[in-house]
Amino acid sequence: MWPAGRSLRTPAVSEFKETTARPRQFRPTGLPSPALSPRCPGPERSAAAQVQYQRFTMLKAIFLTMLTLALVKSQDTEETITYTQCTDGYEWDPVRQQCKDIDECDIVPDACKGGMKCVNHYGGYLCLPKTAQIIVNNEQPQQETPAAETVGAAANAVATSSAAGGVAASGMASSGVVPGTGYVASAAAVAGPEVQTGRNNFVIRRNPADPQRIPSNPSHRIQCATGYEQSEHNICQDIDECTAGTHNCRADQVCINLRGSFACQCPPGYQKRGEQCVDIDECTMPPYCHQRCVNTPGSFYCQCSPGFQLAANNYTCVDINECDASNQCAQQCYNILGSFFCQCNQGYELSSDRLNCEDIDECRTSSYLCQYQCVNEPGKFSCMCPQGYQVVRSRTCQDINECETTNECREDEMCWNYHGGFRCYPRNPCQDPYVLTSENRCVCPVSNAVCRELPQSIVYKYMSIRSDRSVPSDIFQIQATTIYANTINTFQIKSGNENGEFYLRQTSPVSAMLVLVKSLSGPREYIVDLEMLTVSSIGTFRTSSVLRLTIIVGPFAF
């Protein structure tokens, strides 16, 4: 036997049990009980006692009448109150003023378990296998009887078949409508092997292995409710007006099929305004999008500002790391929120597109980077020095002392280094009649008559100065090595100052300072003879000495 929901009951209004209240015996106060009253023979009862008994009988009748009216009134009131109360499985219909069946299959969530299907029934519901079919019984005798008698006969037939092993049923509503199935039963159910007859005069046949064995009578027509139609198995099934095209929804509406009917709704993203469906502008509502919202017909989508991209939720915008995704910078890339910027290595600068880097020509930006010459290189620069110099501290040029590194002078020559080069001078610079007495000192012998008109001694000195030296500038000091008493020393430039580049200033009785008064440009060599004249204060003798100064002006100012 298939499981059932609630026990099937015949629809009925809640009944009240009409009972006749038994009135209590009224006994007026002060009157003796009739059972206790002395039984007096009729002829001997006094007139007063008869009057008293009649009065008691009258009061008793009045009391019973009033009690009966009160009971009737209370029953009427109770019937009025309880008339709207229906039994289980039914609810009161205020419009039709009667109880109507509750479709538990619609209101009870998951009413049937184990893959069973729910079939609504009067006052309850049935849980049937999904392969069970509901068919009409045509085996009852077709008699030309009124519909009510036919229904009653069908109910009796169902009750009879139930005794043989079917599903017990308690009757069928006079309307013959199977709630929730959309049809009106017009005949009794078929009873036979493998057939179980349920209430409401329909038969359930369970034969999932061979659906074609389900008895059907194509010539038999059943009356279906509005929105339903008869199927090939003689059951009422819902008409899908949306698929059949029999709905009257507008072109801008969506047809939704319902049980026995249909509904017209606006598509998602639209709302009904009057008789038309208009687009909902989601972008005017509370922000759906993190940054920018773009409304489209029936929908919307989110956009992000440049430098951002939509996250997986299509709502949030997350920063794009341009330095990882598509590094456009030529050298250095720095990501920032919503953007990025490029930087260049030292020695480069950003081009106009702010992405590429161009070499900075440092040599053109300043003429003071290098002491001699600036050489531009990709991303950097270097300094060069002229021949005879070397670079120190990356920018400064320092003279190379070739006399210490690459002395190319002969043995009878001495090497003299100057700014930017060197020169070889004879170790014995003395010329006849002078003889070498010490290093760089030549003396003319007194015994030689020629020496009387010549300076007594000549001392050879060498010096180097830079080109374009600032003037005036003290460059060399001359001083007497031998001091005689009662003598006067005077100093003068004897030769080598034809253009007036020098000036000799006496600083003491025995010394003088050679001053450069004109700027010299090299490379050039100047030989200047500085003479010290010594005269006796009493005029007894006169002598002179010469310092032959070789001045080498370097080619550069360093």
Automatic annotation (TrEMBL):
A Pfam family annotated for this UniProt entry: Fibulin_C
Cellular component GO terms held in the UniProt record: extracellular matrix
Record CDD domains: EGF_CA (cd00054)
Region (Disordered): 1-43
A Gene Ontology molecular function term of the record: calcium ion binding
Keyword Signal attached: yes
Keyword entries, A-Z: Calcium, Disulfide bond, EGF-like domain, Extracellular matrix, Glycoprotein, Growth factor, Repeat, Secreted, Signal
InterPro entries recorded: cEGF, EGF, EGF-like_Ca-bd_dom, EGF-type_Asp/Asn_hydroxyl_site, EGF_Ca-bd_CS, Fibulin_C, Growth_fac_rcpt_cys_sf, Nephronectin_domain
Cellular compartments annotated: Secreted, Extracellular space, Extracellular matrix
Oligomeric form and interacting partners: Interacts with ECM1. Interacts with TIMP3.
Family: Belongs to the fibulin family.
Name by which UniProt lists this protein: EGF-containing fibulin-like extracellular matrix protein 1
Origin species: Cnephaeus nilssonii (Northern bat)
